[in-house]
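Example 351.
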Amino acid sequence: MKPRILTGDTPTGRLHLGHWVGSLENRVRLQEQYDCFFLLANMHAFTTRADKPADIRQDTLEIVKDWLAAGIDPDRSTITLQTEVPAIAELTWFFAMLLPFNKVMRNPTLKTEIETKGLGDTYSFGFPMYAVGQCADILAFRPELVPVGEDQEAHIEMCRDVALKFNQLYCGVGNRVPPEEHQTAGGAFPIPKALIGRIGRLPGIDGKQKMSKSLGNAIMLSDPPKDVQKKINKITTGRQSPTEPGDTSNILFTFVRAFIRDGARVAELERRYAAGDNIGDGHVKQEVAEAINTLLAPMQERRAKLDGPAGDDVVIDLIRRGTRRANTIAEETLSMAKQAMQLDFGPRTLG
Ligand code: ATP
Ligand code: MG
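Predicted structure in complex with adenosine-5'-triphosphate:
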């Protein structure tokens, strides 16, 4: 049996380059070695967009199209929908009891999101709950690895804490047992590890926040070449002329290093830019946009085949198929957890 991977995305919009370098690239790469589960966190989309069910539904389908376009192979990997895996919601409750309220509220990722997404002090009760829910998303599949971007590190840490605590409290695992030995020591849950992508936090084209679906600063995997160039052109560095020595730690060069894959060319650009050797921002932007478009072209070709309602049907079918498989595993997990908690009053079967 292959070790498992679990990760996912919230359907709050289409996927962008940040997803690619932060997580998606790893998912595509690891599909052969791992039994992969990719979760559509549609419940979590409701925590900030409860008034937009139609958008959430459409974004859910669009994300699957982005996954398939990026190279996720539904014959090898399992695509599943959070709201159709009831064990996740049940585990969320159990885990909520193991986490101090104030610890959840101090979670730095939540704090940043409240700030950057302008959620003020009127965000829903469900919003901070999503961080607890995410522990259940992950642990329901008992994975070894969770490929995510850097912003998710705090969440994975919380997930590890919950798993450790559950195993200690209900499965008799000793306090001194190291995390990697929890399952062999009788723990219901493995203590999963975050796998951070090649670029853990890609900034948006605004150069301030991380690139994010919700912040209007993203280059989407489905953006046509012209839009990519236009968006890259919006990057500002403050540099005045091609002969001014430039700072290669700026946002433009973050994109250079992320997307120009020829290391020698990157080094050359860095050298000339730093020296002010007659190389303008405009030129660098053009090379970056070309590199991005080269990366995206095959994805967009695959995506075009999934356009429109016929593509939606294909996607819905894949979701149903994957969710049946996901429920088998998640139900097994829930039943192990309930047994450990002395809640094993009766068997049940789903889907
Ligand atoms: P939202 O704005 O709704 O929070 P998002 O763009 O942050 O959307 P998520 O669905 O929250 O996207 O994140 C999905 C995955 O992609 C997570 O593993 C996250 O860490 C990763 N990710 C998102 N944005 C970036 C980024 N800019 N750089 C690297 N990884 C990222
Ligand atoms: Mg996010």
